[in-house]
Design goal:
The structure holds 2 protein chains of 2 kinds. The longest helix of chain A is centred in the middle third of the chain and has 32 residues. In chain A, strands 2-1-3-4 form a 4-stranded mixed β-sheet, sandwiched between helices. Chain A is an alpha/beta fold. In chain A, helix 11 packs across helix 12 and helix 11 packs parallel to helix 15. In chain A, helix 3 links the parallel strand 1 and strand 2. Chain A has 15 helices and 5 strands. Chain A has 2 domains: 236 residues, no CATH class; 129 residues, 3-Layer(aba) Sandwich (abc type-2 transporter like fold), CATH 3.40.1710.10. Chain B is an alpha/beta fold. Chain B folds into 2 domains: 116 residues, abc type-2 transporter like domain (abc type-2 transporter like fold, 3-Layer(aba) Sandwich); 198 residues, no CATH class. Helices cover 66% and strands 10% of the residues of chain B. Chain B contains 15 helices and 5 strands. In chain B, helix 3 links the parallel strand 1 and strand 2. Chain B is elongated and about 95 Å long. Classes of the chains: A alpha/beta, B alpha/beta. At the A-B interface, helix 2, helix 4, strand 4, helix 6 and helix 7 of A face helix 2, helix 4, strand 4, helix 6 and strand 5 of B.
C-alpha cells in the first residue's frame, strides 16, 4: 500500500508541476464545455426561405406571412423568379424554395385543393426532414384557418360530416425535455466526452513516456508488483478525472441549467466505476505501444470510436445493427446512457442496473488485462 | 535551397523508415471513414412504443393493431394497464413513446364524440422526439381517415429534396467526415515533429545549421503533404465506391481543394509543435484543440445556421468549416470554382498565416 501511494504521489507531482498540463486538464475542458455546448444543436430555426410567388393573391401573401411569422423560417425573398431561386440554392443563400403556382387561390376556391412546390436543400445535415415537417405543419394550419373564408358553402357540409365521423382528440406530451432544449441532451454528453478524452490521453501516454525516457527500467527494478504498479498509475488520474467531472457538472448546472433529477451520489459512484474502465483501457494501450507517438495514434483511433459510435451526438438507435453491437463494447455508450438516465430522466439504481453491470465488468477485465500486458514487458 | 533539399531528404527518411507509423497514417483515415460513415446516422426507425390500455375494446384493438403492423416504424415493446408503469419503461429505454387510451374509447367514438388519446414522447433528444411524434400522429390520422373523417381544404405540397433526394445520412455525413478525419490526422502528423526534436535534443543540430526558420517549417510540412494527399485520394475513392456518394462536380477540383486543406491542417500541427516544448503537451493540444472544435463547429454534424451568432463567428476560423462546405458543394451540388472561390481564398489565407506564424514563433526560440 505504501508503495502504491509513493508512486501515485510521484504522478501527482508530475502533473501539478507542469503548468501546461494542468491548464489542459482543468481550464481547457471547462472552456470547451462552455463554448461547445452552444454549438451542439440539431435544432432547426431561421431556415432561409426563398419564395417564388406566381399567384400574388391575398391567399398566397398570407401564406408567406405565416412562414415568416412561424419563427422557423427567415423569408429572404418574397417575389423571386425560378431562375434566381436555383442560383440561391446553389450558392447556399437559400435552404428552401417555396413555389406558389399562378392559380393557387383560384384552385382552392374552386376545388378545395391546390398544389404547392417545396424544394429543400437536403445537403445540409439532418435538417431537411425537420424543415419539411415544419412546412407541412404551417400549411395544414393555414388551410384550416382560411377554409371558412374561401369555401364558406362547403364548410357546413364538411363540418356536419366531421361531427358524425369519429375523431381522435390527440394530446402530445414531451417527457423529460418539454421545452425541447438541446442543451439538456448535449451538455451531459459533452461533459462525458471531455472527461473521457482527458483520462484516456493522460493514461495512454504515461507508461509509453516512461519507456521513452528509460525511467521504466528504474521502476522495474524496484520491488513493486505489477498490480501495485498499474493501480498506482491509475489512482492519481482517477482522482483528477473525478475532479474534472465534478467541476464540469457544476458548470453545466450553473450555466446551462441542466436538470439533475436523479441521485448525485449514484451518478458519482457510476462515474468512479466508469473512469476505472477508461483509465485501465488507456494504461493497457500504454503498455502495448513503444513510443508516445504510437500511443497518440491509438488513442486518437479509440477516441473517435468513443465519440462517434457511442450515441454521444447521434442516437444509437439510428445506427445499423452491426454498429450497435460494436458500440456495446465502448464503455462510453453505457456511461452516456446512464448519465442521461440519471440526470434527465431521474432513473434509480434498478433502471441502470444492466449498463452498470457491464461497466463494472469492463473495469475489472481491462484492469487485469493492463496488469498482464505490463508483466510481459517487464519480464 | 540545397540546405532545404537536404532537410527534405532527412524528413523523407524519417517517414520511410518508420513503416509502422506510415501505415497507420495512411490506413487510419480509410478505416475511419468506413467505420463512421456507416455509424453516423440520424434516421429514426424501429421506435419502441408502449401502449397503456386500461380497458381494451374493439377500437383500441384496431388502433393498436395499426401500430403493431407499420412494418418497421414501430415496435410495440410493452402493453401495460396503468400510466404509472411508464416512468420506469422510459428510464430503462424500453419505450421511446407511449400511447395512452382512456376507458370507453370505442363508446365515445360510436357516439360521435371526440375520443381523447394521450401521446407521450421521450424528448430527451428533441429531434428524435419530434420525428417520433410525427410518426405517431401519422398513424392516428390514417386511422381517422379510414373511419371517414375529412378536412374542408387541402394544400398539397410537392416536396423535392434537392442534392440528396433520398435524404441518405451517409451522403450528408461522408463529405464532412472526410474533412474531420483529414484535419486530425494531418494536425497529428506534424504536431510532434518539432517537439520530438526538442525532446531528443536534435533541435540543436537544426539550429546551428544555415537553415532559415521558414525553411525548417517548409521542410517539416512538405513531406507530410505527400502522405496526406494519398489519404485524400483514398478517401475520395472510398466515398465513391463504398458509400456511393456522387461526385457531381470536378474530381480534380475536389482533389486540389483537398490538398489545400491538408496544407492548412499540417500548418496547425506545425504551429502547435513550434509553440510547445514537450510531446505530451503537443499531443494534448492537437487532440483536444482540433478534435472537438472540428467535430462541433465545422457544420459536419451540427448545422451552423442553428448556432448562436458569436459561435458562427468563431466557426469562421475553423478550417474544416470551409472544407466541409467545399466538399459538399462539389460532391452533392456539382458546382465549380465560380461558387467556391471565396472559401478557397479563405483556406489559402489560413495556410499562409499559420505558416508565417510558425516560422515566426520558431524564430523566437532561436534567441
Amino acid at each position: 500500500m505504501r508503495r502504491i501511494l509513493a508512486l501515485a504521489r510521484a504522478e501527482v507531482l508530475h502533473v501539478t508541476r507542469d503548468r501546461a498540463t494542468l491548464a489542459q486538464i482543468f481550464i481547457v475542458p471547462i472552456m470547451q464545455l462552455l463554448v461547445l455546448s452552444n454549438a451542439a444543436t440539431f435544432e432547426v430555426r431561421d431556415t432561409a426561405a426563398y419564395v417564388v410567388d406566381q399567384d400574388r393573391s391575398a391567399t398566397s401573401r398570407g401564406l408567406v406571412e405565416r412562414f415568416a411569422a412561424s419563427g422557423h423560417f427567415r423569408v429572404i425573398e418574397r417575389a423571386g423568379s425560378p431562375a434566381r431561386a436555383n442560383q440561391a440554392l446553389l450558392g447556399g443563400e437559400a435552404t428552401v424554395v417555396l413555389t406558389i403556382p399562378a392559380d393557387f387561390e383560384a384552385l382552392l376556391v374552386r376545388t378545395g385543393a391546390a398544389p404547392l412546390q417545396i424544394v429543400v436543400n437536403a445537403e445540409k445535415g439532418s435538417a431537411a426532414g425537420i424543415v419539411q415537417s415544419y412546412a407541412a405543419r404551417i400549411l395544414s394550419a393555414y388551410a384550416v384557418e382560411i377554409a371558412p373564408e374561401l369555401r364558406p358553402h362547403s364548410i357546413g357540409g364538411a363540418g356536419a360530416r366531421a361531427r358524425s365521423a369519429p375523431r381522435v382528440d390527440v394530446h402530445v406530451r414531451h417527457w423529460y425535455n418539454p421545452t425541447l432544449n438541446y442543451k439538456h441532451y448535449m451538455v451531459p454528453g459533452i461533459l462525458v466526452s471531455l472527461v473521457t478524452m482527458i483520462a484516456t490521453l493522460l493514461s495512454a501516454q504515461n507508461i509509453a513516456r516512461e519507456k521513452e525516457l528509460g525511467t521504466l527500467e528504474q521502476l522495474n527494478v524496484t520491488p513493486i508488483t505489477r498490480g501495485q504498479f498499474i493501480t498506482a498509475k491509475l489512482l492519481p488520474f482517477w482522482g483528477l478525472a473525478m475532479m474534472d467531472f465534478a467541476i464540469g457538472l457544476t458548470v453545466g448546472w450553473l450555466f446551462f441549467d441542466i436538470p439533475i433529477r436523479g441521485s448525485l451520489p449514484l451518478l458519482f459512484a457510476v462515474a468512479a466505476v466508469y473512469l476505472t474502465a477508461v483509465l485501465a483501457i488507456g494504461l493497457w494501450i500504454s503498455t502495448l505501444v513503444d513510443t508516445q507517438q504510437q500511443a497518440m495514434f491509438v488513442t486518437f483511433f479509440v477516441m473517435m470510436i468513443y465519440l462517434l459510435m457511442s450515441g454521444l451526438f447521434t442516437p444509437v438507435d439510428s445506427m445499423p445493427p452491426w454498429v450497435q453491437v460494436v458500440s456495446e463494447f465502448t464503455p462510453v455508450r453505457h456511461f452516456v446512457a446512464i448519465s442521461r438516465a440519471i440526470l434527465v430522466k431521474g432513473a434509480g439504481l434498478a433502471e441502470i442496473a444492466r449498463p452498470l453491470a457491464i461497466l463494472a465488468g469492463y473495469a475489472a477485465v481491462m484492469w487485469l488485462l493492463a496488469i498482464r500486458q505490463y508483466s510481459k514487458r517487464s519480464a | 535551397m540545397r540546405a532545404l533539399l537536404a532537410l527534405l531528404r532527412k524528413e523523407l527518411y524519417h517517414i520511410r523508415r518508420d513503416r509502422r507509423t506510415l501505415a497507420v497514417l495512411v490506413l487510419m483515415p480509410i478505416v475511419q471513414v468506413i467505420l463512421f460513415g456507416f455509424a453516423i446516422s440520424t434516421d429514426v426507425k424501429n421506435v419502441r412504443i408502449a401502449i397503456v390500455d386500461p380497458a381494451p375494446d374493439s377500437e383500441t384493438q384496431a388502433l393498436r393493431h395499426r401500430f403493431a403492423s407499420t412494418g418497421g416504424t414501430f415496435q410495440v415493446t410493452a402493453v401495460v394497464p396503468r400510466t404509472s408503469h411508464l416512468e420506469s419503461l422510459f428510464q430503462r429505454g424500453t419505450a421511446q413513446a407511449a400511447v395512452v387510451f382512456e376507458p370507453g374509447f370505442a363508446t365515445r367514438l360510436g357516439q360521435g364524440l371526440p375520443a381523447p388519446l394521450l401521446v407521450i414522447v421521450d424528448a430527451t433528444e428533441p429531434n428524435t422526439g419530434s420525428a417520433i411524434q410525427n410518426y405517431v400522429l401519422a398513424v392516428v390520422s390514417a386511422y381517422e381517415r379510414e373511419r371517414g373523417a375529412s378536412s374542408p381544404l387541402r394544400i398539397v405540397p410537392a416536396v423535392q429534396m434537392r442534392f440528396n433526394p433520398t435524404r441518405e445520412s451517409k451522403h450528408l455525413f461522408v463529405p464532412g467526415l472526410m474533412a474531420f478525419v483529414l484535419t486530425i490526422i494531418s494536425a497529428l502528423m506534424t504536431a510532434i515533429s518539432l517537439t520530438r526534436e526538442k525532446e531528443t535534443g536534435t533541435i540543436e543540430a537544426l539550429l546551428v545549421s544555415p537553415l532559415h526558420p521558414w525553411q525548417i517549417v517548409v521542410g517539416k510540412v512538405v513531406p507530410y503533404l505527400g502522405v496526406g494527399f494519398v489519404s485524400v485520394i483514398a478517401v475520395v475513392v472510398e466515398a465513391r465506391l463504398i458509400f456511393d456518394v456522387p461526385v457531381r462536380g470536378s474530381v480534380w477540383l475536389l482533389l486540389a481543394e483537398g490538398l489545400l486543406f491538408i496544407l492548412v491542417s499540417l500548418s496547425i500541427g506545425i504551429l502547435i509543435s513550434a509553440r510547445t516544448s514537450s510531446q505530451r503537451v503537443a499531443m494534448m493540444a492537437a487532440l483536444v484543440g482540433t478534435m472537438l472544435p472540428t467535430m462541433l463547429l465545422s457544420g459536419f454534424m451540427f448545422p451552423l445556421d442553428s448556432m448562436p451568432r458569436p459561435l458562427q463567428l468563431v466557426a469562421q476560423v475553423v478550417p474544416a468549416r470551409w472544407f466541409v462546405e467545399i466538399a459538399r458543394s462539389i460532391m452533392l451540388k456539382g458546382v465549380g470554382l465560380e461558387f467556391l472561390w471565396q472559401e478557397t481564398l479563405v483556406l489559402a489565407a489560413m495556410a499562409l498565416v499559420l505558416l508565417t506564424m510558425s516560422a515566426r514563433s520558431f524564430h523566437a526560440r532561436l534567441e
